[in-house]
């Protein structure tokens, strides 16, 4: 941190001037007085970097040094904090963050992919070099999710952490339910509205939300999670009929992530579409909103909800980290000294009740075949529903059932058996019914 004779100034080097980077520059300008009062010093954008120096970004960058190579911000003079807002688990973002931390320079990032994938190594690097690594914006945009878990619940023993962590998916699922439209149709709308990327894979296949869950789990349980072992499923398999069945059965479909620590130290973690009871608070987190839920031994269940993306909310989280550093408040990355990653329990060990939807040829004996698959796996059915309204001109019809408590291993056996039936069309959809 620098001092001069007139006032203390904290100088930022911002890498990435897209949605979030420009939001940070704008908010630092528009909310200058309040930020000054809270930081106790002036915050100055001393340097920036992006790919295209010629692009008009709608903010005044005059007098700010431009770096063609973002990695130079790691060691350049006149910079107190590197703010990495490029994105991606590899490439320039990773190289910049590693170089800055190795140089003992504090880093703020919104990059959940980087933290979920390389968090263990980065935490060690920050620790070894006496640098801070802050990442409030990486989970759920404007919601202070990191501070909520790491600082607010520091005294508790958390039993689970999770939530609805992707606004694009929540928007698509909410709109499908409210309008009866199909996934592809609503995805196209989400892209036109700017919620989903042109390549929506990271969002709709669950990876963005899974990155965020990995970060929350690391904070909740004090050590990073082996991200490549986490069970991740997206929402592409959800059809309009599933929304219909879910409503009829008293549920809503949400892309939900949940992590729990098992007694043997392994982490049970999944990000997948789930059914949750429609009378719960989490079921009413709608549209682009996100929510983080925790359950602590001492604090009990809690939920915080808000905007999980966008320039304003995300920039506000980035600047909150800047203010923390200005106040001299930097904590260990995962709230405790660096630890080796925890392994994830295999998916088969999950248990609970399940929803299964199968598109079938509407002819005698089909239900008996499906019931036999459940019987053979030792799964007890709680209810079954079929609607003629869903019957297609080719006499195929969706059929949905819910089970009593069972194991994921048994449901995987059911899925294998059902997939082999001649009467089944397409891929059946299996959703966990999650108690929240
Ligand atoms: N958008 C959101 O709502 C949220 C985003 N985040 C995270 O924030 C980060 C930034 O996201 P967002 O602002 O949306 O991303 P954008 O795609 O809008 O912006 C990325 C920026 O990085 C710059 N960039 C790309 N490659 C390089 C490079 N090699 N060297 C220097 N600059 C480069 C781009 O330059 P140029 O403009 O010249 O192309 C652009 O300015 C990501 O980690 C994202 O996951 C987190 C929460 C919410
Ligand atoms: N693409 C994310 C926002 C960035 O984390 C979402 O839709 O929630």
Automatic annotation (TrEMBL):
Catalytic residues in the record: 212 (proton donor)
GO MF: homoserine dehydrogenase activity; NADP binding
Keywords: Amino-acid biosynthesis, Methionine biosynthesis, NADP, Oxidoreductase, Threonine biosynthesis
Gene3D superfamilies: 3.30.70.260, Dihydrodipicolinate Reductase, domain 2 (3.30.360.10), NAD(P)-binding Rossmann-like Domain (3.40.50.720)
Pfam families documented for this protein: ACT (PF01842), Homoserine_dh (PF00742), NAD_binding_3 (PF03447)
EC number: 1.1.1.3
Keyword Transport assigned: no
GO biological process: methionine biosynthetic process; threonine biosynthetic process
Binding sites annotated in the UniProt record for L-homoserine: 197
Pathway connected to this protein: Amino-acid biosynthesis; L-methionine biosynthesis via de novo pathway; L-homoserine from L-aspartate: step 3/3; Amino-acid biosynthesis; L-threonine biosynthesis; L-threonine from L-aspartate: step 3/5
InterPro entries hit by this protein: ACT-like_dom_sf, ACT_dom, Asp/hSer_DH_NAD-bd, HDH, HDH_cat, HDH_CS, NAD(P)-bd_dom_sf
Domain ACT: 355-432
Residues that coordinate or bind NADPH: 112
NADP among keywords: yes
UniProt similarity note: Belongs to the homoserine dehydrogenase family.
NCBIfam families on file: PRK06349.1 (NF004976)
Protein name (database record): Homoserine dehydrogenase
């Amino acid at each position: 941190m620098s001092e001069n004779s007139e006032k203390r100034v904290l100088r930022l080097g911002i890498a990435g001037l897209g949605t979030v980077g420009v939001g940070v520059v704008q908010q630092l300008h528009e909310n200058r007085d309040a930020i000054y009062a809270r930081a106790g010093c002036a915050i100055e954008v001393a340097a920036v970097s992006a790919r295209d120096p010629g692009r008009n970004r709608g903010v005044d960058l005059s007098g700010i040094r431009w770096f063609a190579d973002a990695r130079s911000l790691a060691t350049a003079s006149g910079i107190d904090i590197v703010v990495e807002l490029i994105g991606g688990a590899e490439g320039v973002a990773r190289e910049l963050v590693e170089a800055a931390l190795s140089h003992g320079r504090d880093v703020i990032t919104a990059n959940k992919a980087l933290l979920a994938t390389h968090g263990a190594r980065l935490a060690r690097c920050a620790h070894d070099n006496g640098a801070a690594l802050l990442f409030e914006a990486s989970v759920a945009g404007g919601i202070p999710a990191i501070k909520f878990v790491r600082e607010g619940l520091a005294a508790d023993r958390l039993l689970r952490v999770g939530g609805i962590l992707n606004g694009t998916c929540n928007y698509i699922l909410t709109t499908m339910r409210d309008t009866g439209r199909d996934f592809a149709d609503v995805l196209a709308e989400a892209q036109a509205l700017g919620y989903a990327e042109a390549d929506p894979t990271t969002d709709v296949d669950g990876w963005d939300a899974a990155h965020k869950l990995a970060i929350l789990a690391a904070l909740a349980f004090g050590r990073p999670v082996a991200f490549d072992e986490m069970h991740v499923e997206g929402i592409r398999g959800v059809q309009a009929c599933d929304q219909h069945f879910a409503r009829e059965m008293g549920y809503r479909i949400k892309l939900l992530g949940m992590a729990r620590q098992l007694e043997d130290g392994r982490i049970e973690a999944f990000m997948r579409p789930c059914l949750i009871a429609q009378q719960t608070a989490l079921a009413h987190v709608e549209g682009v909103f996100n929510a983080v839920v925790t359950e602590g031994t001492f604090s009990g269940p809690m939920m915080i909800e808000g905007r999980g993306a966008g320039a304003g909310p995300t920039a506000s989280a980035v600047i909150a980290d800047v203010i923390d550093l200005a106040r001299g408040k930097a904590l260990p990355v995962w709230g405790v000294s660096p630890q080796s990653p925890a392994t994830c329990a295999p998916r088969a060990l999950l248990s609970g009740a399940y929803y299964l939807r199968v598109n079938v040829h509407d002819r005698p004996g089909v239900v008996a075949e499906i019931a036999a698959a459940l019987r053979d796996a030792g799964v007890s059915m709680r209810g079954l529903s079929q609607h003629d309204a869903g019957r297609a001109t080719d006499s195929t019809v969706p059929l949905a059932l819910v089970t009593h408590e069972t194991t994921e291993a048994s449901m995987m056996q059911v899925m294998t058996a059902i997939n082999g039936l001649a009467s089944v069309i397409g891929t059946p959809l299996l959703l966990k019914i999650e108690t929240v």
